[in-house]
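In the design runs reported in the main text, the only information available to the sequence generator was the tokenized backbone. The following block is the verbatim input for one such run; it is reproduced so that readers can re-run the procedure and compare outputs position by position.
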């Protein structure tokens, strides 16, 4: 794995602060508070709104030139008190950014000062997340927030008796709201009750509520559900980026875990099904078996269309690894991967580089990629190269419903396979037949 250059020309990655805020948005009645300038938070909020097509709960401490030099602790204390007083959130995520970390913000001391000055808000937990945007990416920021949530809301305690049938699901940033819903149904099919952390499937799935507009997150993992995770029978950690969070949860609660790099390839899906069988003591239900059979049939149907297709992928590491494994298992030739930052775990290999979309375009051109798999920022690259574009990752702003697409599970894999086959078929149909200059036919034949 190589890092070809020290600067980004055509950015691929989203910042750690965006990932941390996304994780906090997966908690019920939550408010992410970015310790940053107004413009930084406005930019993050714009990304979220274009991707999810929803109003997003997000606040800022509004740092400016003077506080960046002299300190902004008072801004943090004031912002926390204002949010608690006006919005009454269940939890606040306090997220530092590159600006506040450069300034040297002492977040633990500031939270202590807030508790001393406003004891009436002692019942509202504050989750501090160090997510400076000069390093990492959305995926690592999301994982850091998940670790901070566990450290704050599930501190070390003796192992409690397990409640049969209850399982915790640690969800990586690569999973969409549609993926989360599919995983819940998968777990429930075995008679188990899933507690997802964080649950963006419940908060960012685009649902309407009878309560109307709320300045806090709509749905998500409730605090009592997080507390109940101490009594889970097992933890299911999905995505290598959350394996450190799984380590912390196991230390703090004593709950055993199962870990999965992906839930898209046939091997990955089968491993998850086998784990649920072991936890529940039940065989795979007929519905799950039928979904697997449908995926196998789709593999037979599409093998000639997608087999040998040259695909290049650009995304965060977890998603890139999952898609690369899935495509390779379908007979697709993955000609190269570009990831936005060094992975926390998992993805390695000579065909993977850390870079930006400029590197991705060069790689795709040199290796004659026929399909580009990346976010909406790759659309112009696909047009320039004459390649098909399968939208994946964050942000996707030029395709309605893409943020709700289900990629995981037997059903999600099947639909992705069909989508790829249709893209390839359409690409070939657009190629006009070559006519030699020596062709003697009539103009109509041309």
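Verbatim output:
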């Amino acid at each position: 794995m190589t890092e070809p250059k020290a600067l980004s020309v055509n950015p691929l990655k989203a910042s750690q602060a965006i990932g941390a805020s996304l994780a906090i948005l997966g908690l019920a009645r939550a408010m992410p508070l970015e310790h940053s300038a107004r413009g930084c938070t406005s930019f993050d909020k714009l990304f979220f709104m274009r991707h999810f097509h929803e109003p997003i709960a997000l606040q800022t401490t509004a740092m400016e030139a003077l506080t960046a030099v002299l300190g902004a602790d008072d801004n943090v204390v004031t912002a926390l008190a204002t949010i608690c007083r006006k919005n009454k959130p269940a939890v606040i995520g306090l997220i530092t950014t590159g600006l506040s970390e450069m300034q040297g913000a002492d977040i633990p001391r500031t939270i202590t000062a807030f508790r001393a000055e406003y004891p009436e808000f002692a019942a509202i937990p504050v989750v501090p997340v160090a997510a400076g945007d000069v390093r990492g990416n959305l995926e690592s920021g999301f994982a850091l927030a998940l670790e901070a949530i566990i450290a704050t809301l599930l501190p070390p305690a003796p192992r409690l008796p397990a409640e049969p049938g209850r399982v915790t699901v640690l969800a990586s940033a690569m999973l969409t709201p549609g993926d989360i819903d599919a995983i819940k149904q998968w777990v429930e099919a075995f008679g188990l009750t899933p507690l997802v952390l964080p649950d963006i499937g419940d908060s960012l799935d685009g649902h309407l509520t009878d309560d109307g507009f709320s300045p806090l997150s709509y749905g998500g993992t409730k605090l009592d559900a997080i507390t109940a995770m101490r009594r889970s029978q097992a933890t299911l950690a999905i995505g290598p980026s959350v394996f450190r969070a799984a380590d912390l949860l196991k230390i703090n609660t004593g709950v055993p875990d199962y870990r999965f790099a992906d839930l898209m390839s046939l091997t990955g899906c089968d491993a998850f099904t086998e784990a649920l069988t072991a936890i529940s003591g039940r065989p795979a239900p007929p519905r799950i078996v039928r979904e697997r059979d449908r995926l196998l049939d789709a593999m037979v149907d599409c093998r000639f269309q997608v087999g040998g297709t040259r695909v290049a992928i650009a995304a965060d590491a977890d998603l890139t690894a999952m898609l690369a494994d899935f495509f390779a298992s379908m007979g697709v030739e993955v000609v190269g991967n570009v990831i936005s930052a060094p992975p926390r775990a998992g993805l390695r290999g000579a065909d993977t580089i850390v870079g930006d979309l400029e590197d991705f375009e060069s790689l795709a051109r040199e290796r004659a990629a026929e399909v580009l798999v990346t976010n909406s920022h790759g659309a112009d690259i696909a047009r320039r190269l004459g390649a098909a574009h399968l939208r994946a990752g964050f942000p996707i702003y030029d395709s309605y419903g893409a943020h709700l697409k289900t990629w995981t599970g037997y059903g999600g894999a099947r639909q992705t396979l069909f989508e790829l086959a249709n893209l390839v078929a359409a690409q070939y149909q657009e190629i006009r037949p070559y006519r030699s200059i020596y062709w003697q036919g009539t103009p109509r034949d041309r």
